[in-house]
């Protein structure tokens, strides 16, 4: 782990100069804010002059903060004429959105780690920033410490992006990894993740995919030059994945991962979704374990590139925030102000391909009566709806209920056809329960 | 594969604007130059106005180039007052160095993919660029299409970098992968790589590690804010790795990779080297196969991050060059010119930790007489020089020569001690040949 600030050497960065330091105001001094405070102490070209906190009387691990730096009023920070950059690390949606707006209105540059605000209000805020000639950076909003926003905006800008597939949520990846490695069921793995601090007391945003949906909304908007808001992301979580699915997937050579997908389609539409997928076990994304994140990008020139690392945590997230601050500081000290092209201030909303129009290979696990002809009925239901099967496997019978577990793997078929076939299967008297329907990742 | 330019849609990038296009002059129209030409056709904010080629009469796949765009004289391009950015893609060392110098002197911005020039003349050229107020970008010089130079300079700048470990040469990684997967010996794997176009007719620069040494010299210079020239990189190649080493490494749970290493040490020294290493088979670097590259970065805040992708080739390399051109175009069209902090124009040479002072765990494979007491002699030689052993294994005897293959794995010991122990072993009459000495990667 990183040593305490007091033992950190001040980094003699080439960034440093003899100019007067760029003044920083922090909004929020929670986990990430504390990390940012520690890291910035290395860089004499920056100085934190004010910090807005919720509770002035709270005991803090950072004993070195001068008491008059703290304020309970965010406005004290935003309105301070001596502050150049506002760093928003409060979390939430409406309140931080209002604060970022005010900061931009006041002509301050802003750095934020807030994926919800960027995913929901990005275009409006970027337009305001451009109008005011200030920067709004947000590298930390997606995949914590992993550099992805800037590389996608700059180094990979020559490409037409064919597909982005990300493991963008550490909580769900931790749960799926433990289910796979220890044979735990979902609830047991979730409890363990909560005990270890990888899942929150209310884990809904993580396990239902909303957190990952915000992040792929942002990456998709950058990659396809069109604003693709979070509510347009088709989203399924992982709470109905069973230990049996993990095991069956492995039998077929796959690992189950919660994948956030953005895929370019004809007519400039984007296929944008978050749901669990069967990933071929040999694919690099299948090997991303525990709380790690990774982003797989396919560009028509660069081919396949992957970015891997920690997607959350005090210091990994602070690393991204401080990277943004230093980049901005460098520009400001060189007399530049607005850096164009670092945003996605796009005029209109991009077009989303409806999930029913997408094509996928599918994995279906169901319980059916253990009697002759059942496989034939299922095959018939598929055939009637243009769903061609790649494999069908009856795995284990349950004498007490006289049922059997059956797994189907389809070829690539249209989602609408698959849903119709599922309806027909469901109506068959021999079908007891369709437990899981998962899509298969196509690298 | 990518379609031909004629079928490429013009990318309606947010980068585009109504300003007059930024004018580009290309030096070189080989593999990468052709890729750059194709990709830039997508971006109306740029226009290639002149291209210097070696042979005007050569048949080219790019039939759409207006004939009067081509010239046999690089000076025609560099001296053209209408050209904003010179893109150097010639290869070599002295000649492209001279051309880049002239371009900067003439106040042109420069983008290059030339690792040799940057590793050898970087600081001088960056200083000249800063003096002239122009930019010199080189993302493509390291690891082709993988974004690493810009992320290291910006997103990761808040970190003290503990270690960079890269697979930076596709040729050697292809050879080692084929040796491992097909049991080929080095010569057979090299021949196959040559037949498939992954190795050149004269493969020396690749297989002896010089290519990777240039690249780690560049990454190390950025990460440690000190110029670390290529000749200071301790370099060993892979040509004496045997099929037996690959197999023995696997027995112990390792994969052999050519690793380029830059590691921060006490007193601001940097441990900088390129040599084959035993990488734990479960480590992400061990799984980087065939011609792919990867860079593993350990920062004290971000933790471990990895960047993965194609390190060479027409379009992957062109992707990085075009990313630089577009980033620069954006800045120029916004009225900015010199972007500070994108270089490593460092005043003095950084300090390198001598290889003898480094500590490593080692793998040693040797042939010894198959007689009692041999293992004891070897253990004695190690013990006499403070080299403690982790494992010693006699694997197979050769009745015809009355020798046995012995493999030693040491704990972490000083390189100087290890070399002394090797000398003692070599002098023992029972030692027939010390075949391979490899270091073990410590993530």
> What is the correct CATH architecture of the largest domain in chain A?
2-Layer Sandwich
The total count of strands of chain A amounts to: 18
Label the overall shape of chain A: elongated
How would you name the CATH homologous superfamily of the largest domain in chain A?
Answer: Dihydrodipicolinate Reductase, domain 2
Structural class of the secondary elements of chain A? alpha/beta
Largest sheet of chain A: 12 strands, mixed
Considering residues with a beta carbon less than 8 A from a beta carbon on another chain, report the largest interface and each chain's count.
A-B, 67 and 66 residues
What CATH calls the topology of the largest domain in chain A is Dihydrodipicolinate Reductase, domain 2
CATH class of the largest domain in chain A: Alpha Beta
Could you name the ranges of chain A where pLDDT drops below 50 across 5 or more consecutive residues?
A: 1-17
In helices, the fraction of residues of chain A equals: 25-40%
* Share in β-strands of chain A: 25-35%
Q: What is the multimeric organization of the chains shown?
A: homodimer
**What's the tally of helices of chain A?**
13
């Amino acid at each position: 782990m990183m040593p305490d600030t007091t033992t950190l050497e001040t980094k003699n960065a080439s960034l440093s100069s003899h100019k007067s330091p760029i003044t920083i105001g922090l909004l929020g001094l929670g986990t990430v804010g504390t990390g940012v405070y520690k890291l910035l102490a290395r860089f004499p070209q920056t100085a934190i002059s004010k910090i807005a906190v919720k509770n002035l009387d709270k005991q803090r691990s950072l004993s070195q903060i001068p008491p008059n730096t703290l304020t309970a009023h965010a406005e004290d920070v935003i309105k301070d004429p001596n502050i150049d950059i506002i760093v928003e690390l409060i979390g939430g949606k409406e309140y931080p959105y209002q604060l970022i707006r005010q900061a931009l209105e006041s002509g301050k540059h802003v750095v934020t780690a807030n994926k919800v605000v960027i995913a929901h209000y990005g275009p409006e805020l970027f337009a305001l920033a451009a109008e005011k000639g200030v920067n709004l950076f947000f590298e930390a909003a997606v995949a914590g410490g992993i550099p992805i926003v800037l590389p996608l905006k700059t180094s990979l800008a020559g490409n037409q992006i064919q597909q982005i597939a990300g493991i963008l949520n550490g909580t769900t990846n931790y749960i799926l990894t433990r289910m796979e490695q220890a044979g735990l069921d979902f609830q047991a793995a979730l409890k363990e993740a909560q005990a270890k601090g990888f899942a929150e007391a209310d884990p809904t945003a993580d396990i239902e995919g909303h957190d990952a949906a915000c992040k792929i909304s942002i990456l998709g908007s950058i990659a396809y030059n069109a604003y693709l808001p979070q509510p347009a992301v088709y989203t399924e979580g992982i709470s109905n994945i069973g230990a049996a699915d993990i095991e069956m997937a492995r039998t077929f050579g796959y690992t189950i991962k919660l994948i956030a997908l953005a895929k370019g389609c004809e007519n400039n539409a984007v296929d944008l979704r978050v749901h669990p997928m069967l990933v071929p076990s040999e694919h690099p994304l299948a090997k991303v374990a525990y709380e790690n994140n990774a982003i797989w990008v396919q560009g028509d020139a660069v081919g396949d590139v992957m970015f891997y690392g920690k997607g959350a945590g005090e210091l990994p997230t602070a690393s991204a925030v401080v990277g943004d601050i230093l980049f901005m500081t460098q520009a400001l000290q060189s007399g530049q102000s607005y850096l164009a092209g670092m945003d996605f201030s796009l005029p209109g909303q991009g077009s989303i391909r409806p999930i029913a129009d997408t094509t996928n290979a599918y994995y279906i696990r169901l319980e059916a009566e253990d009697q002759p002809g059942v496989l034939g009925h299922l095959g018939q239901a598929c055939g009637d709806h243009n769903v061609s099967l790649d494999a069908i496997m009856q795995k284990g019978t349950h004498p007490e209920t006289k049922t059997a577990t059956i797994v189907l793997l389809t070829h690539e078929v249209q989602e609408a056809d698959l849903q119709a076939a599922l309806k027909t299967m469901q109506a068959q008297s021999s079908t007891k329960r369709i437990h899981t329907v998962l899509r298969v990742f196509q690298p």
